[in-house]
Amino acid sequence: MHWLFLTVAILSEVCGSSMLKLSGGFSKLWPSIGVVVSFSVCFWALSMTLKTIPLATAYAIWAGVGLVLTALVSVVFFGEKADFIGIISIGLILLGVVLLNTMSHMSGH
Asked: To 10 degrees, the CA torsion angle through 86, 89, 95, 100?
């Protein structure tokens, strides 16, 4: 169940970040409401995750996967450009998340 909560936290964080872009500095009502709702769900779900997954692991996964998905959203939906260094950098962050979860004692395994 904790992985479901973490997935909800990640997806709602990506949604909240996307709504933040659309809110125009909180000048547009519905995207601004979307920011508040999405981040509220995100932090509630992340707090539920932390009941069973160590903080370092949960935060690394949440931040790393959230970053990758947010970058994809920015390219696909907002037409932002991805350069070679950016792609390599995001890949290294994702590699760090994988290594943390498979090889580090911080992951609680």
From this structure: -130
**Please, are residues 45 and 6 in contact by the beta-carbon 8 Å criterion?**
yes
Residue among 57, 26, 53, 56 nearest 39 (CA): 26
pLDDT at 104: 76
Question: What percent of the chain is modeled with pLDDT above 70?
Answer: 96
> To 10 degrees, what angle do helices 2-22 and 55-76 make?
40
How deeply is 17 buried, as exposed, middle or buried, from its count of CB atoms within 10 A (0-12, 13-18, 19+)? buried
Question: Distance (Å, rounded) from C-alpha 109 to C-alpha 107?
Answer: 6
Could you tell me the pTM of the whole model? 0.88
| CB contact burial 64-103 (16+ within 10 A = b; e otherwise) | bbbbbbbbebbeeeeeeeeeeeeeeebeebeeebeebbee
